[in-house]
Amino acid sequence: MTEYRLPIFYRYRILWHFLFWVVVFVVYWLTYAGYQDRYYEEFIMNLNLLPARMIGTYTLIYLILPLATEKKKFVTFSILVLIHAIFYGFLIYLSYYISNPYPEFYDFHKQPIFNFPKILTKAISDYTLPLTATAIIIFKKWYADELKNKKLSEEKMTAELNFLKSQVHPHFLFNTLNNLYALTLIKSDKTSDIVLKLSDLLDYMIYKSNDEFVPLKKELEILGSYIELEKMRYNERLDFKYEISGEADSYEIAPLILLPFIENCFKHGASNDRSKPSINILIQIEPLFLSLLAINSIPPKDSKDDPEIIGVGLANVKRRLELIYPNQHDLVINQEDKVFNVKLKIFWKK
Q1: How high is the pLDDT of residue 193?
Q2: Taking CA 87 as the corner, what is the angle to CA 111 and CA 124, rounded to the nearest 5 degrees?
Q3: Residue 227: inside a domain, yes or no?
Q4: Residue 206 belongs to what domain range?
Q5: What is the pLDDT of residues 34-55, one digit of tens each?
Q6: Nearest partner of 265 among 302, 303, 300, 293, judged by Cα
Q7: 277, 270 Cβ separation under 8 angstroms
Q8: Please, is 226 exposed, middle or buried when counting C-beta atoms within 10 Å of its C-beta (0-12, 13-18, 19+)?
Q9: Crossing angle between the packed helical segments 191-203 and 216-231, to the nearest 10 degrees
Q10: Reduced to 3 states, what is the DSSP secondary structure of residue 89?
Q11: How many Å apart are CA 234 and CA 183, to the nearest integer?
């Protein structure tokens, strides 16, 4: 799993705060200086106002805002915002009143210190700054939560996929060992070939299929090896057709995503059919998608053999398809009296 890191605007916190206040100072300074053409005077004035603006902003985002974002006390938050706005307006007005270095331009000293209309005016005109900072904090929190939820969702999906894939190995191994055991009982000459092919298949499953996607050509080779393993059991009793059309060289596919459908044909079809079982598998490789048609005969419904047709393998692979190819696959499974068929279409990842 790759190391997870927050975006850059969540790191270097002190630097971002410093840049924020530099931008705020420059915007206020150039805006007011441009109106009155007094750049030096407005530079000094906005420098004097900066502490008040910082105090008002940080008290809002760190003392009052958590009431809404963390404790969900929205009524208390709203009341405190109104009180804070008046407090902020008074703080700004007081900064003008006390630190005004140019009385010839500003007449604050001629007015009472508790001039409520002036305080309210400053609260309304300057409160956009704390509100802007609050909007930034809310957005950062929302975005961080989205990233966290996305990360948790990805980790959950990865864990589920790993679990489902891990079930493929023992499920396949159990079936193949059963086949191997049956051949050893009759002392078949095919036993050594089965052991060799089984070894190659397990090597691929355990060590070479851990990537999210693998070359389609390699996956088809594994399917061919598995089919050869199964065909050894049936000799001429099995009516088997297997066809691949199209070029596989330039495509990738999720590993072991096709095998359960092929395996199901043998386990729940041919192995339960004591007469003349048949399996027909067609894989078509198109520029936009891959299609799989798997048809196998099944015993009559009144047979005493195992009636389970959709086993653990198909249930797992259906879930894997939902996770790996959401809205990028079509799967239709039908069961009739004597035939079970699977139609799968997987659209290539772009």
Answers
A1: 74
A2: 75
A3: yes
A4: 153-347
A5: 776 778 878 888 888 899 999 9
A6: 293
A7: yes
A8: buried
A9: 150
A10: helix
A11: 11
